[in-house]
Amino acid sequence: MSQALDVIGPTSNFYVSQRLRLHYVDWGNEDAPTVVLVHGGKDHARNWDHVARVLRHDYHVVAPDLRGHGDSAWAVGGTYAIWDFVLDLAQLIEALGGGPVILIGHSLGGAVVLHYAGTFPDRVSKLVSIEGMGPPPEMQKRLEATPAHERIGNWVESMQGLAGRAPRRYASIDEAAKRMQEANPHLSGEQARHLTVHGVARNEDGTFSWKFDNYVRAFAPARFRSEDTRSLWARVSCPVLLMRGTESWARDPEKDGRMSAFSDARVVNVEGAGHWVHHDQLDIFLKASQEFL
User: Fold this and answer.
1) Residues of the chain whose pLDDT is less than 70?
2) Residue 27 domain-assigned?
3) N or C: which terminal CB in the chain sees fewer CB atoms within 10 Å?
């Protein structure tokens, strides 16, 4: 049976949030504790496959495509704010029975799971966030100091630019996979191809384009301030594992003081990993996560 699980892939499922038809994959084992894996920006649910294949033996693993990503619907109007993704996660967890669940998120997904757990602390039993704490404190201060009219003006300019931006077309999957490896040199050829196969759609002319909505590239002009975010983190009642790659832009949250906002958190810094810790050092990520869980 264990060998069969390694071969059989996940089922494809849909749920509705804010009138959007959103997609998720379910790796089975429904009687076990539920783990929800939440991907980052411009990514997709199947980026977790190597993690899910290991965790599925002990957990009921579910991985959603965030709105505007993968096989989920694009938002009408094209605004993608953090609270929209939190709503979608809340709707998914309701569809799965209401929790409590274990949450694992990367980057944008890492921020989403932290915001969800701070809003609904009783629905999360444990949480892993890979580089999901946002900009380092000094950058956050600069962003908060930007006047509202500048933030709105920058957002309008960004949205207007994206409106005229045609999705890039690649002649083949191999060409798209090469671009993915350029973005993350830590990826092996096999990893890049797997992520690309599930991350592109075939165009009518035979070319391939990424599935995500170009509007996800824009940041909403309204955002949580540092004190709001820290107040949410303080409400997280479950144990939290914060992970980062030492070769990433992300700062160590223990050294810069952000970890102190949590009541029960620990930090793991992974050597030889960039922003995508679960790709760059899969075995180390799995070992640390499984010990924590």
Assistant:
1) 1-7
2) yes
3) N
Is 160 contained in some domain?
no
Q: Which residues pair with 34 in a beta bridge?
A: 60
Residue 285 backbone dihedrals phi, psi, to 5 degrees: -60, -45
> What's the number of domains the chain is made of?
1
Residue 233: give its domain's CATH number: 3.40.50.1820
- What is the pLDDT, as a whole number, of residue 219? 86
Residue 25 lies in a domain: yes
Per-residue model confidence (pLDDT) at position 4: 53
In a domain, 165, yes or no: no
Residue 120 is part of which domain span?
2-143+223-292
Q: Which residue in 200, 211, 194 sits closest to 172, CA to CA?
A: 200
Which pLDDT value is given to residue 139? 86
SS3 annotation, the chain: CHHHHHHCCCEEEEEEECCEEEEEEECCCCCCCEEEEECCCCCCHHHHHHHHHHHCCCCEEEEECCCCCCCCCCCCCCCCCHHHHHHHHHHHHHHCCCCCEEEEEECHHHHHHHHHHHHCHHHEEEEEEECCCCCCHHHHHHHHHCCHHHHHHHHHHHHHHHHCCCCCCECCHHHHHHHHHHHCCCCCHHHHHHHHHHHEEECCCCCEEECCCHHHHCCCCCCCCHHHHHHHHHHCCCCEEEEEECCCCCCCCCCCCHHHHCCCEEEEEECCCCCCHHHHCHHHHHHHHHHHC
Asked whether 216 and 42 are in contact (CB, 8 A), the reply is yes
- Angle, helix 173-183 to helix 189-199, in steps of 10 degrees: 120
Burial-class residue 270 by CB neighbours within 10 Å (0-12, 13-18, 19+): buried
